[in-house]
Amino acid sequence: MRHSKHHNQLGRKKEHRAALMANLAAALLTHGRIKTTLPKAKSLASVC
Q1: Per the domain annotation, does 30 fall within a domain?
Q2: Regions of the chain short of the pLDDT cut 70
Q3: Coil, strand, or helix at residue 7?
Q4: d(CA 14, CA 19)
Q5: What is the pLDDT of residue 7?
Q6: Radius of gyration of the chain measured on its C-alpha atoms
Q7: Spatial separation of the C-alpha atoms in residues 2 and 38, rounded to whole Å
Q8: 3 in a domain, yes or no?
Q9: What global pTM score does this model have?
Q10: Which residues of 12-39 are buried (b: 16+ CB within 10 A; e: fewer)?
């Protein structure tokens, strides 16, 4: 079934999106606060 298959792609390919999320997560853990766009922050919330 197709239930819950939608993920925010952020206009990037899979590898680029994975690297972006890894970098944002690392910056968040390092600095405790990051400045980013709302869609990126919402995608990051599911990663962290």
Answers
A1: yes
A2: none
A3: coil
A4: 9
A5: 80
A6: 12
A7: 26
A8: no
A9: 0.82
A10: eeeeebeebbeebeeebeeeeebeeeee
